[in-house]
Amino acid sequence: MSKPKAVVLAPMRGPSWDQLQELADCHYDPSIEHIPLRMHKEEDLAALVREHGATILISEIDKVAGPVLEEPLIVVASTRGDPTNVDVPAATAKGIPVLRAPGRNADGVAEITIALMFAASRHVCQGDRDARAGEIYKDGVIPYQRYRAWEINGRTLGIVGYGAIGRALAWRAKGLGMNVITYDPYAKDATHTDLDALIAESDVVSLHAPVTPDTKGMFGAKQFAAMREGSIFLNAARADLHDGDALVAALKDGPIAAAGVDHFKNEYLDPASELAQLPNVVLTPHIGGATYNTEANHTKIVVDGIAALLKGERPETIVNPEVLGRREPASGPDRTEK
Known about the structure:
alpha/beta; six-stranded parallel beta sheet; five-stranded parallel beta sheet; elongated
């Protein structure tokens, strides 16, 4: 039997990429390698799948919906933790298995959170700006006077959301000598069942919850006001989790001393916004998961899932397992030329 064909639009790395090329004939053209970033329209993506006779589609940002799902695909793999780029209900209606890549960026996001914490607590960005501007002794004040701070060692970190990223952050913080407490109503091993109690005990609060109707705006004026004087707020998850105006107020008037944020609504921050003008917040443009390791991780996760499907097994990362009992054989329809 000839190998299935695959259209691969996500960046792939590591031994699992070699494995995929053994399993399938791959057309590899990752969107991230195009400048500007390329995103196919649904009609164009469907045409690309047809052009290459593909029955396997792997995508990170391209929308897999509408005419794409009219193609005889035997699997769609999204290299995202949550396959938001795939119309899962439509794929399910077509009997197409959808795979995802949970936890692919857990270590990367945990690392950027640690970076934000140190940058915010130790005035790293302001110190960098002073050094570059020749203002080390700005206004006759030595840096030691301007930038004294508490060390992270011995402080309490409150992690809100104790999934893969929260856990990856927890062991790193413990290694730095921090006391770690956690809140997550869905994690039985979280230390706290009450968010207010966690906030009251934390010197640093870091958000790592998914955005749901229950968590959207979960950190507002009340929560910021309840934070300890001189504490630090971190959000390397999604901006929808906190109230932006309330964060600005808390940074300007207390009680928090500093913050670190890695995501903005609509993936953009207006340079004229109040947040962008504040000296006590460190801002990064959603780069927590921007590591080559993340790409190697999602490659392994989705390739393991595809390999399982081709063997007639159930992948651990399938989003719609109900399709497995009514799908065509794993080899898929015959798309070879007659």
